[in-house]
Amino acid sequence: MLTTLVVILPVFIVLATGWLAVRTGYLRQDLSDHLNAFAVRLAVPALLFRAMIDLDFAQAFQPGMLAGFYLGGFVSFLAGIFLARFLFGRRPGEAVAVGFCALFSNSVLLGIPIMQHAYGDEALVPVFGIVVLHAGINYTIGISFMELARADGRSLRETVRVAAGSILANPLMIGVIAGVLVNLSGIVLPAVLRVPVDMLAAAGIPAALVGLGAALTRYRLKSELAESLMVAALSLLLHPFIAFAITHLLLDLPVEQVRAAVVVAAMPPGLNGYLFAVMYNRAVSLSASATLVTTALSVPTIAAWLWLLEHVL
After folding, report:
1. Rounded CA gap, 55 and 51, in Å?
2. Per CATH, the architecture of 2-312 is what?
């Protein structure tokens, strides 16, 4: 267990550096805005673009692996809605926002670096298969359920149309789509273009981790600790367990596919759960608290999943 914990600690130490630098006043609070803007608008899109132009789609898109990952997320989403609604007395729209926290795994900012540190660059191929579909599938699920749950706002069709436009305009998705198009076209980037892409890509994950840590200083644990722990249990335990059960116990998929599905499923929701709650103004305080709790608890739980995979597969 100590060995697996050492594998993931560098990632969380970089994240904690951003948090500590802002909390101590060494860096300004608005650092997270600037770092996240750089990471999300430039560096991480360059990372995803580079990954897509080099990706072997036949290896990346494995139906069994994707089914294990997304079915696990969907069950966690439904469980979150049910528990928030009937155990914690949330209104329908709030319950959907809580469920979304249990649905969304931080596949890019945490999943990619942890998989890379644990298993090397070659282990990222199936991870990118998950990443390509992640935002589109999860936001479509969350938005559809939210519009069915709430009585106010625009129609479901209009909301899905606007959301689809927003997803396609997202810099991360632009990087993915651009890379896919270059890959399918067979174009080989000349060195004069490939080198700056590589330079931006190399800066993406460190900048994003520091920015994420700095952003976490804005959130507080208010009074919803029990509900936050429920979200953590669904996100960090139930989701990866279902992914493991489907990919390994049921389908007996190759080791690299099981690892990708389980490890990415074990990631905390990051800021996406909070941003979704803000978008609809539903359970915002709980989503902020859950972001902190799940991120903190993910350190030992991710280490435990890595240890389990090492001894079972």
Report:
1. 6
2. Up-down Bundle (1.20)
Q: Between residues 10 and 262, which one has the greater pLDDT?
A: 262
Question: Maximum distance among all alpha carbons in the chain?
Answer: 58
CA gap 231, 195 in Å, rounded? 42
Calpha distance 77→94 (Å, rounded): 13
143 or 113, higher pLDDT: 113
**Positive/negative CA dihedral, 247, 9, 311, 123:** positive
pLDDT of 218 reads 78
What are 189-239's pLDDT values in tens digits?
888 999 999 999 888 888 878 887 887 887 776 668 899 999 999 999 999
| The pLDDT of residue 255 is above 90 | yes
pLDDT bin (cut points 50, 70, 90) of residue 56 is: confident
The angle subtended at Cα 259 by Cα 253 and Cα 261, nearest 5°, is 80
Q: What is the DSSP string of the chain?
A: -HHHHHHHHHHHHHHHHHHHHHHTTSS-TTHHHHHHHHIIIIIHHHHHHHHHHT--HHHH--HHHHHHHHHHHHHHHHHHHHHHHHTS---HHHHHHHHHHHH---IIIIIHHHHHHHH-GGGHHHHHHHHHHHHHHHHHHHHHHHHHH-SSSS-HHHHHHHHHHHHHHSHHHHHHHHHHHHHHHT----HHHHHHHHHHHHHHHHHHHHHHHHHGGG----S-HHHHHHHHHIIIIIHHHHHHIIIIIIT---HHHHHHHHHHHTS--TTHHHHHHHHHTSSHHHHHHHHHHHHHHHHHHHHHHHHHHHHH-
- The per-residue pLDDT of the chain, averaged, comes to 86
Domain ranges of the chain: 2-312
Q: Looking at the chain, how many residues does it have? A: 313
